[in-house]
Design a protein that fits this description.
The chain has a domain of 64 residues. It is elongated and about 45 Å long. A three-stranded parallel beta sheet has the order 1-2-3, with helices on one face. By secondary structure, the protein is mostly helical. Helix 2 packs antiparallel against helix 3 and helix 4 packs parallel to helix 5.
Length: 102
């Protein structure tokens, strides 16, 4: 069985035909970084998470987190862990995927 035709297209071409803006952005990001690397950040503290995000940020496209299992998560919307993580995502050009377990 051969792959679907859309899977043979480049990330840039797939960005052009994407129907959702987030999908198009993700494909453009993958094209820009020449990668589709998603890191599952299974760390135990907010400090470790922020350090890891800053170190690997330039090399990844998506950072997958589990905020509910990270000790020391600061919920302040301006200065907390999520805000600092968002700053790193903008700085290094990656998306944050929160994978909360319900």
């Amino acid at each position: 069985m051969s792959p679907h035709e859309s899977l043979k297209a480049t990330f840039a071409a797939r960005a052009q035909t994407a129907t959702h803006p987030l999908t198009a952005y993700l494909f453009r990001l993958m094209d820009l970084k020449a990668s589709n690397l998603c890191l599952s950040a299974d760390v135990s503290t907010a400090r470790e998470l922020l350090h890891l995000a800053d170190k690997v940020g330039p090399s990844i496209v998506v950072l997958k987190t589990h905020h509910d299992v990270v000790a020391g998560w600061d919920f302040n919307p301006q200065t907390g862990t999520g805000a600092r993580l968002a700053q790193l995502a903008r700085k290094h050009g990656f998306l944050i995927f929160e994978d909360r377990k319900f």
